[in-house]
Write a structure and sequence with these properties.
The protein is an alpha/beta fold. Helix 5 crosses helix 7. The strands form 2 sheets. Strands 2-1-3-4-8-5 form a 6-stranded mixed sheet, with helices on one face. A two-stranded antiparallel ribbon has the order 6-7. It has a domain of 166 residues: Rossmann fold, CATH 3.40.50.150.
Length: 259
């Protein structure tokens, strides 16, 4: 995450306010973690930018974490090293200092995307990984029927995948990441087969796009979903998803190797 405000929040979302229960709902999913670990290709030293509470930090590698939000740094568990208070656009490390660099669910918070990605490329000898969502696919999710402004916000905030690839340069691959039905990382699409979870205020708060919608509108959206779940209307339209083991939604992994 990037620019800081006086209350310790990061980027355009105020994590000083919404980040309190983040670690309770945004727990790294082991299947997504395995994909990231494989993409790191055995890197011994890894920089995690916008590290938050430490999701997806490889336990096998020596990880250096960067996180500008004080509230998020405070939620890091004791088994992880403390995060450095710094921003993506100005990483305080020499050139080629790490074997690899990674960032997960963070680039949409940065004030200067290109500068941050080029900094990651500068300090990494090997792969740079970006786990993010493709804004062109965000509105394909069923939640758009219930909370259009929330997903409009997500689509607006997430940078285009082509812009990420261009900024990183080198040999870039983009992989769609399957989202398990019981995904433990509670972003909106993680609940594709468990719509009842989005009635939980804590689950919604852990998805920062909900914080851009006023409380009355958020309640109106939630009540619409609650009514359709109670009446069976949601299940008539989307109930097949409950038995679907995974979803290919907007989640993607961008991996860049140096030229």
């Amino acid at each position: 995450m990037s620019s800081r405000t006086v209350d310790g929040s990061a980027g355009d979302a105020d994590y000083g306010t919404i980040g309190g229960g983040y670690a309770d709902y945004r727990r790294p999913d082991e299947r997504i973690a395995a994909l990231l670990t494989g993409a790191l290709d055995g890197a011994g030293t890894v920089l995690n930018v916008g590290a938050g509470a430490g999701s997806y930090e490889s336990v096998a590698a020596e990880v250096t974490a960067v996180e500008p939000s004080a509230s998020m740094r405070a939620q890091r568990p004791g088994r992880l090293s403390p995060a450095i208070d710094a921003v993506a656009e100005r990483l305080p490390f020499p050139d080629r200092h790490f074997d690899a660099a990674m960032t997960t669910f963070s680039v949409h918070q940065w004030s200067e995307l290109t500068a941050g990605l080029r900094e990651m490329r500068r300090v990494a000898r090997g792969p740079v990984l970006v786990l993010t969502c493709d804004p062109d696919l965000v509105r394909d999710f069923w939640l758009y029927e219930y909370a259009p402004l929330v997903l409009d916000t997500e689509a607006r905030r997430y940078p285009a995948i082509a812009d990420i690839a261009d900024a990183l340069g080198g040999d870039v691959t983009v992989q769609r990441v399957p989202i398990p039905a019981d995904c433990t990382d509670g972003f909106n699409e993680a609940y594709y087969a468990r719509p009842e979870m989005l009635l939980d205020p804590g689950a919604r708060q852990a998805c920062s796009a909900w914080s851009f919608v006023d409380a009355a509108t958020a309640e109106q959206y939630t009540e619409h979903l609650r009514r359709d779940l109670r009446s069976g209307a949601w299940d008539r339209r989307h109930g097949a998803l409950r038995g679907q083991p995974s979803l290919e939604g907007s989640l993607v992994l961008v991996r860049a190797l140096p030229a």
